[in-house]
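Session log. Operator J.P. requested a structure for one protein chain; no other inputs attached. Running the standard single-chain path with token output.
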Amino acid sequence: MKKKSIVIVSLVLLALLIAGVVFIPNPVGARIMSEAKANGYIQYHPLEAYDMARMICTQCHSDERIKMYCPRCGPPFVAVVPHMQTFIENYRKTKPDVKFVNITEPQAVAIVQVWNALVGNWEKDFREQDILKLIGHYDQLKALYLTPVDQRPIEAFLSGREELKIGHMTGLEQMQRKLGTPENNPKPLQEPTTEANPSDAGANQHNHDHDHADHKH
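Structure written below.
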């Protein structure tokens, strides 16, 4: 009985310790949560995914380059992001003094949704078989690709965050809303008006007086 009580107390203390590490803000708990999300045990909140995507993707290039060049590269993010692992590994070799964080597949799933929402999603412009071939052996990314956009939690959430968007369609929704407001409606053309210049009037009167005097002579 005594041994059983010791075991129960030990388990309770262990559970409290784990709860304290995980739920009370501290470096160890933060590290555990980060690893759990990176490996897919816990889902990223959309705004956490946004921060994570910017942190990882701007290791090699700025978000301005993402905005300018990613839409021109061809394949959509779902087919490109997994291959960023190769680029990061190459950076590690060419810049051994710089620490680069590579991408896990659960992170890639979150990153794809972030940039789809904030830069653009052109998955429908490509044939399904071509996209799946480009994705390769990444099963979680294949599952994401086959999931409707409105059922992708991160992408659906961030699609409504206009202030975060950096793609070429940025601000379009607000511009469309403003089109119907009175101050933005086309105004009728007004006839040009000319105002009399006092100096011109004086000069005309002066010439008229001279003409009248000449007529008398």
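Operator note: Residues 2-23 form the longest helix (22 residues).
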